[in-house]
Amino acid sequence: MLNKTITKQDLATQAALQLCSAAMDQAEKCGINICITIVNSSGRTLASAAMNNAPLLSQAISHKKAFTAASFGIPTKQWQERLAERNNTLLALQSEPDFTFLGGGIPILLQGIVIGAIGVSGGSEQQDIDCATIAINTLVS
């Protein structure tokens, strides 16, 4: 008989809140104000935080970063390299409202399977990536 359902693992809400807190802790160490969005594997927001004085656009950008990372299972910055010679594809993806190639969106993997993603915005691209990476690393420690 053909299976008609699947079982899927997703990031837990408590883990999403922990990620937000860890990303903010790192941002404070860097002296920046960021927005963070955590989504599950389907792109649904589990947690979101905006530090005081974070740029206003950073909230929407952090969501795009998380959604893009969850959608494709790769860090958002990788799109810069992947699309460097593919202008038509880049233009098509840029017209999608929830896509971004700005660094700071990272998928969260469990045994190679995407269970969620984090998006960070408000610092430089590298600071956003660092805040997201350090936050993810707290889940494993």
From TrEMBL:
* InterPro entries to which the protein is assigned, alphabetical: GlcG_carb_metab_protein, PduO/GlcC-like, PduO/GlcC-like_sf
Q: What's the superkingdom here?
A: Bacteria
Recorded protein name is Heme-binding protein
